[in-house]
Amino acid sequence: MEETAIKGLKLLELNDSGSDSGESNCCSSTSTTISVEGYDTSLRRYPLKLELEKHFASCGEIYNIYVPRDFETGILKSVAFMRILGEGAEDKALQLSGTDVGGWTAIVKRAPYQKVFMDDPWYAGPRCAAAPAPADTKTYRIRVTGYDTSLPKIDMQIALYKHFSSCGSIWKVIVLSSAAFIYLEGERCVDKALELSGRNMGGSTLVVEPVVPRPDILKKRRPLACTTTGYTLPSTLLEVAKKKKKKMETEMEMEMEMEKVKEKEKALS
Are 201 and 145 in contact (CB under 8 A)? Predict the structure, then answer.
């Protein structure tokens, strides 16, 4: 395991003080932190995280997947870390060492749990106030419907990622009960995605629509809190991220319901 990738895991002493300080169940005895090696470091981070989530889904609840990358080059480092919750999660995960993950063999090892990952200033995301300035790119969002909603969420995320990967750089796929939202970047990425509307994916005909961000949501976006070194505290960030994700999904569901009501009103008028 390369030294720079686990630098942050050695910064804090291992102790059980977290259980006495009222921390969330991410740090409980029924959870484990593992390291995973064997993947091609030229892969993109997001699809790799999707692959890891699917491969280790049987081990328990995937609480966090951390794939560090080189700060200057942006290339992934050779080891990733996963936090998995559930009884026997560690044993189940270790049993997957040596198994195939989409063309590469996973090497799974135990890894000590730490409260802070310090080797990747991009861990907090590009909106972290102290993070390095991101490339001058704009992120767009599209909505996709028409897919088979009976499929597992992770399978649909992977399928949608592959289906729209030619349109631009995809950094998130959110699958809800009746629609999916894809965040992507790149020249003409939305136009390219709209050209795939009506195309077949696994026997289903997809409907693709652009999504225009609401002005009130854009105004609420502020830089994320960071430490003085520019690195965030994952234990705090993860809780905030989970709440933010839930709120985002709720807002999307409400937007869809409002649009349905408007369509019905137009049909009746």
Answer: no
Average predicted confidence (pLDDT) for the chain: 76
214: Cα separation from own chain's centroid: 23
Write the pLDDT tens digit of every residue in 27-73. Answer: 555 889 999 999 999 999 999 999 999 999 999 999 889 999 887 88
Residue 178 and residue 224 in one domain: yes
Are 149 and 246 part of one and the same domain? Answer: yes
Whether 119 is covered by a domain: the verdict is no
Number of domains in the chain: 2
Q: Is 128 part of a structural domain of the chain?
A: no
The H or E element containing residue 6 is none
C-beta of residue 63 within 8 angstroms of C-beta of residue 238: yes
Containing structural domain, residue 203: 139-268
Is 50 exceeded by the pLDDT of residue 233?
Answer: no
Indicate if 101 and 147 belong to the same structural domain: no
Encode pLDDT of 101-159 as tens digits.
Answer: 989 999 999 987 555 454 444 444 444 544 454 555 688 999 999 999 999 999 999 99
pTM: 0.68
CA distance 153 to 158: 9
Residue pair 227/131 in contact by the 8 Å Cβ criterion: no
DSSP 8-state code for residue 223? P
Q: Is 172 exposed, middle or buried (0-12, 13-18, 19+ CB in 10 A)?
A: middle
Backbone angles phi, psi at 6, to 5 degrees: -110, 15
Report whether 158 contacts 50 (CB < 8 A): yes
CB 38, CB 106: distance < 8 Å: yes
